[in-house]
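input
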Amino acid sequence: MKNLLMAIVFIAISLPTFSQVKINPGLRMGLNASNITNQYNSDRVIGFNGAMFVNFHFARFYELQPEMTYSNQGFKGDSYTYLDPYSGDIIRVNQDNASLHYLGLSVANKFYFFPDLGLHFIIGPSLEFNISDNSYYDITPIDISLFGGIGYEFPIGLGIEARYKQGVIDVRDSFYNFNDGNYYENNKLNSVFQFNVYYKFDM
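output
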């Protein structure tokens, strides 16, 4: 009886809080400027990103936003030459562009430190699945990333955001790091700047 009474009191206290939660679906799309770290003589390449999301407005200063995402990223390969220390020959390497396609799930935490201005900060994790690529080395099927950024939302639900997403695992599948005096490479991680426009539908 005591536990039942406590449960009723808890529900009674919680109802006003949860009744103020506002839920809005939305769409986000934009451009990526991506590269892979420690990829010799490479540049950032432009790709597309998009997402469907559900926004939970818990308080004036905080929103939780689960997202289903798509992201096209990789790197732009440049040609370079190097001197072979064994043969003494000058070797020319022509790198092709690498294009990686990911579907994923992310959880964006939005903090509105100035709610009346619409300015907000974003931070969260992302789990992404490689669905296709044209890389010359095998790509890991799963990438885990952390992202952060800043955005501005207008009263009509339209917003703009800039995010930076950093992968935390090597993109090369079954890669082993050798250091025998002749061969050494650091981890190759996804590095992506994202520039987005989004819209929250008023439900």
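quick obs: The chain has one domain: 2-200.
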